[in-house]
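--- STAGE predict ---
source: upstream dedup step, 1 unique chain passed
mode: sequence only
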Amino acid sequence: MASGVFLPSLEDILDATGLALAWDAEDHQWALYDATGAAAADYNADTVYTTTNEIAGTGYTAGGKLVLGTAFSRPGAGVMKYSSNAVQWDGSTLSGVRMVKQYAAAVAGDPLMFGIDLVTPVNTADGTLLITPHSNGLVTFDLTP
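--- STAGE serialize ---
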């Protein structure tokens, strides 16, 4: 699979239903998934956080971890960048971590926001899984026609 934005939640933000989801809120979660979860990610249809194919292991709690330092910026004309601080799982023993899904844990129904395919499964053995966002951000919206 690939990384991407879950479109149903974005549509709900922009349409008449007006989903009250603030991307730069400090209450979103990163949940970790295995390769099956990554392959099954459907950015056109998936709507909410699920435990199906979520990683289990020492140092990881179902539902994932809180994401802090969320921010929007405008690095160029017509471009918005969403970024956050790094997220880490210390003292973890995890196997086959392949995907991160960010969801709005404080919004009714836990709507999905975006997914990051790590491409190669990652393992830890009583170590730290650290995911550091790229300097270009986690998600970039280019709204230039």
